[in-house]
Amino acid sequence: MTYILKTQDLTKVFSGKEVVSHVNMCVRKGEIYGFLGPNGAGKTTVMKLITNILKPSFGNIEVFGSELTNQSFDILKRMGNIIEYPIFYEKLTARENLELHCQYMGYHQQDAIHEALSMVHLTNINQKSVKNFSLGMKQRLGVARAIITKPELLIMDEPINGLDPVGIKEMRELFRRLCDDYGITILVSSHILSEIEQIADTIGVINNGHLINQVKMKTIKDYKKEYIEIVCSQCHQASFILDNELGIHNFKVMDDKILRIYDTHITQSHIAKTLILNDITIDSIRKKERSLEEYFFDMINGGAIID
Ligand SMILES: Nc1ncnc2c1ncn2[C@@H]1O[C@H](COP(=O)(O)OP(=O)(O)OP(=O)(O)O)[C@@H](O)[C@H]1O
After folding, report:
1. DSSP string over 132-159
2. For residues 141 and 27, is the Cβ–Cβ distance under 8 A?
3. Which residue's C-alpha comes closest to atom 6 of ligand 1?
4. Strands 226-232 and 258-261: what pairing?
5. Distance in Å, CA 39 to ligand 1 centroid
6. Counting Cβ atoms within 10 Å, is residue 269 exposed (0-12), middle (13-18) or buried (19+)?
7. Index of the ligand 1 atom closest to the CA of residue 42
8. Ligand 1 atom closest to 157 (CA)
9. Pairwise CA distance, residues 42 & 276, whole Å
10. Atom in ligand 1 nearest the alpha carbon of residue 41
11. What angle separates helix 94-105 from helix 112-119, to the nearest 10 degrees?
12. Which helix (H) or strand (E) holds 94?
């Protein structure tokens, strides 16, 4: 398996508190890795560690097969990033900002600026200085700057912040193109599940500094999401019957009235009949689908993935 990025036990402590805890992240070459987590989960900190903006308190990072150190200039040159909000020289134009960036990176490719600006659909901006750009325009310019040198690994922290729905769709398409047509590996973070779901090949879920799960999108899509939901006022008695009479162990009592059975090999009618024969009054029983949100909610709340 070719991993372009691997972290081992990656840990960051701020003021005695572990905000990133023993993260073992593996990003495959050529994929889009969606880094998903609620606000404050530790996404930005992990990305700052990977781009050498912060130093790990513990653990290590391997990029392109070499360990990242203070001296890893060659590795960093092969990476592009947007971490937090992109900062520009506000009085300069987009083109002037990109020219400075290319000089700094030692990248002298004719047409690179024009190509990057048109890839992010930032055209007709002529002499406008960046201070007059909207947040969405700045975000696009940030992506243009990150991709201008055709990096092998692109790291983007919440890149769709500030974009309108059309802009978000364009960015999604751009990321897919960068990955498929240019072979760029992308690590992109978001706290919006639906965004990550639409773009990622692999999802890594982080919560409270812990990487809770790393899973291929295909596995999630193939995941059996069907369950039987029973609404009744005697859930605890019902669960006893499921366990002891029907041999169903894979279920969850959601609250006083709702019980979910994830083990669907016994028919709904047989379950209903058995419960009724045991004097359980059923308000309703029906098959339902677990949404991706519920899947992640379960994962974040203690990893209780029921299958
Ligand atoms: N320089 C710092 N000093 C102290 N604590 C910090 C520092 N930077 C981040 N933190 C804390 O580390 C935790 C993780 O923050 P981080 O910005 O990495 O999360 P995040 O997942 O990117 O969140 P968001 O989506 O809100 O950007 C938070 O509790 C944050 O307050």
Report:
1. GS-HHHHHHHHHHHHHTT--SEEEEEST
2. no
3. 14
4. antiparallel
5. 8
6. exposed
7. 18
8. 22
9. 49
10. 21
11. 120
12. helix 94-105
| pLDDT of the residue at 306 | 37
Question: What is the maximum alpha-carbon separation in the chain?
Answer: 80
The amino acid that residue 34 corresponds to is: G
Phi, psi for residue 184 in degrees, rounded to 5: -85, 130
Choose one of 10, 12, 19 to mutate for the ligand 1 pocket test, by most ligand atoms within 8 angstroms of C-beta: 19
Q: Which atom from ligand 1 is nearest to the alpha carbon of 15? A: 4
Distance 40 CA to ligand 1 centre (A): 5
Q: Which range has the top average pLDDT, 44-48, 192-196, 225-229, 233-237?
A: 44-48
In this predicted complex, what is the ipTM?
0.96
Ordered domains of the chain (ranges, CATH): 3-217 (3.40.50.300), 226-289 (3.30.70.100)
Q: How many residues does the chain have?
A: 307
Structure token pair of residue 152? 């092998």
| Ligand 1 pocket residues where CB is under 6 Å | 14-15, 19, 37, 39-45, 191
Token pair, residue 188, equals: 């992109």
